[in-house]
Amino acid sequence: MIKTFRLLFIAFFVAASLQAAGAQVRTLAAPCGGEGTMLLYSPAERGFLKLEKLGPFFRLAWALDGISDSALFYAPRARRGDDIGIVLGGGTRFYVCGRPAGASEKTPPLPGEDFWSGNGTLWTRALTAKELREYSSGRKNGALAVSKDITKEKQMDHSLAVYDRSKYMLPFWSSDVIYHETVMFVEGDKTALLMYPAEEIFEVRSSDLETLYKEGEDYRLEDGALVLCENGSLPVMPLSEFYPDPATALPGTYFECTVEGHPLLGFSETPKFIEKQIAVTYRPSGRWEGPVPERQPKFDRFLKKLLSGEPVTVVYYGDSISTGANSSSVYGRKPNAENWCRMSCSAMEDISGNGNVTYINTAVGGMESIWAVDNIEERVTAYDPDLVVYAFGMNDHTKPAEEFIRLTDLSVSGIREACPECDVLLVSTMLPHKRARGFWNNQDIYEDAMKEYVKDKEHVGLAPVTGIHRYLLTRKEYYHATGNNVNHPNDFLARMYAQTVIKVIFGR
Which of 250, 368, 421, 486 is 20 to 30 A (C-alpha) from 458? Predict the structure, then answer.
């Protein structure tokens, strides 16, 4: 708690200094993985500013138009991988790197013009006019060359060949760069839409991230969409596997299909569909027009305990989606991304800096809310949790919404009676593939009923995944972001779950 107040004080101190220099700023401070680290939010950007660590110094990873004034960061106790940001307001600040002579953890130098403000955690100072000229012209290393006419990104590498939780947790609805969005070309497809129209494609990789494809040879960008190049090497799903022949299809490899002329729809719990997908990293254009989850104060009791560093237990309780099917880590396949439950719990640890988080996952594939009620004591309350993440609905699809809510309430009541200090986060389900006959049913109506159910309940809230997935499907074909082509997420869609959970609890 003391550390958190110290961080808030630093955020206020730095923001006040900038306001005195003429910038209009808003601040948000949070511990982010190491003592003395800070995140500040920029209203001029679409998220938190990212900086690159150089020894005890940090430099800005991108810049806005124009230069008004500038500062140097010195953060001696920050660790590699931590983020330290400072708000850009009415004017752009210019960041440089370099160790001032005599700088130490406790007392940076304070000679003449090199005046430093701060304390042992974070120090800043303004650049001299000479330094500003030298760095802005590129005559010195370790700084960004900024144009007054156009935003420039320098020294930022968008290539990503491994699972990186910090990038996977960048929210779909507000990120300046989308990493590893998945796409699958089915035989006959020439163009694939992305979640946003792409302004620029940084790279396209195989789903295991091992193969880097070539723009102009394997793919090209046209009107914001990904276009398949003739004779390129991008994987393509054969039509005969996407729509299997009833005469030769093996049991367990298909569902009945709703598409006229195609009696069967391909299905697999192996990596078959994931292997045909590709991972696209790009700069989006346009705006997110779908729903954006909001922070719910219903979880402040859990959040206070988490941020204080006390031991907390988080239980994930659900169906096969919550077991992690079909995340790459389940297959032991690169990039070995965490399933959505583990990813969201790890993100709680990252954001809070609390290393005393116990993760428990008692989900079982194929289960639905009647089973949930019957097993609540053994699989949830026996662990005395501080937070339960409850995610059923996919397999309840034949139930009316009223029955689904009645059963959900029985589970919630059982948790709250046995563990009165526990908060409960309900998670509405992703949608199934409409082409899979018999599976698409009432999943789409449960979320509205869940919203109504939690409205007046203390310490019970909702992560609204259904609505976000519904919007995503207006932009992309279902098979672009599924692990089994019927009702499971792949790594990309698992991120939607994790991001929604974190936004509802933390507001970020």
Answer: 368
